[in-house]
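agent> fetching stored inputs for the pyridoxal-5'-phosphate docking request
agent> found them:
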Amino acid sequence: MNKNIMLMAGPTALPEREIKAMDRQVIFHRSQEFEDITKELNENLKKVFKTKQDVMVLTGSGTAAMEATIQNCFSPGDEVVAVVIGVFSKRMADMAEVYGLNVIRVEKPNGEVALVEDVLEKMTDKTKGVFVVHNESATGVTSDIQAFGDALKDTNALLCVDTVSGIGALDFAFDDWHVDVVFASSQKALMGAPGTAVICLSEKAWEATKTSKFPKFYLDLTLARDFGVKGQHPWTPAVFSIIGLNESVKMICEEGIDNVIARNTELSDMTVKGLAKLGIHLFAKDPIYASKSVNTFYYEKSPQFVAKLKEEFGIEIYNGQADLHDTTFRVGTMGYVAKTDIAAFLYAAEQVVKELEAEE
Ligand SMILES: *Cc1c(COP(=O)(O)O)cnc(C)c1O
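agent> prediction call returned; pasting tokens
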């Protein structure tokens, strides 16, 4: 018998409290009860995002929020600079091209981040937006969003940030860092069930929505905000996902967002140090930028390592993504993860590495 331990890059494990909250009869989304849940969630999300702005919950995954960003804040032909450092940041650049934006890419090899200077170099006086991924889950690197915010705050460009696997595990301060648009999914560091995304806009971004010329309907953010402040959603939302997310975000607020970040950092450091003893090291080129939520390691026997951990110990981690599948593995320390989980993982990792080395 194995007891499952999930150290996932998303979706992440659900706390029992959240599973219990979702185990119920369906609820009418215009009822007082659901209105109260929506209001509570929206208020708590402000604490997590460290913002005074409204945070909106959309039905759809993080990619829907990515699309909402483009539809609501830009117009056909707008020039944007997009950081491309892995498959998720590439997705946003590709999507912007599908929408007919003029996308200038700042590309870096796997395992590296783009720096502010790299982006400033490509910007012109026509640049309307800069797209940066906070935590590139495919390669395990984290961008310095605060530095981007400082550099862009007095320009005309909107700083649009994908923090799908960042917020809830890594430090993020929407207002203080001068971010203009940020979005995340329910199912990563926020510990929610899949099905919803969260998004937040600055005053500058709301101004941009007024002149945006893309057609928008299902993901119209002005509509989402107008309904959201009343505890409502424009359409039938993913009710169960919202009930689950409300519970997990409540847990984050009870622990305190800064304590959650500190716990995640501790778990990440424990993982990195433990694996280093086995001769396995971070994939990130510079450890300063190594992700502490989707910890990514270089190991030639990664696929066998991942498979054996699951088979022999019931421990679930992720293979590397895309072209990194065979040479890296990813350990999620975000969400519902405790020190005992990492201790078990490190013990199992040691056994599995020994077995794999004995096979040679
Ligand atoms: C998971 C992920 C996405 C995609 O989110 P979905 O919820 O699967 O649509 C986008 N960006 C990053 C950085 C991610 O980790």
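agent> quick read of the result: Residues 10, 61-63, 88, 133, 135, 137, 162, 164-165, 185, 188 surround pyridoxal-5'-phosphate (CB under 6 Å).
agent> awaiting further instructions
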